[in-house]
Write a structure and sequence with these properties.
The protein is mainly alpha-helical. The protein has helices spanning 3-24, 34-53, 67-75. The chain is elongated and about 50 Å long.
Length: 81
Amino acid sequence: RNLSARKAIRNRILGLYRKRNNIVHGSESQEITAEDVTWLRKTVHHLIRAIIKRRSEFEDTEGNYTIATRLEDRKLTDGTA
């Protein structure tokens, strides 16, 4: 909903990804909690629903799905794209 909330979500996802890497690559024993899994599933669910709801914003004039390009462009602008 706002920049600080998006950053908090990103940081939590990055933290979970680091835990995953440590588990998979065996460098460290870390625990993924049931709360982590529940939170991540809920977050992915909300993301998918938002993308579906706003899918017309991610299509170009030929109807091609361009979410990756749109998100990359948004990073390079002031964030209002």
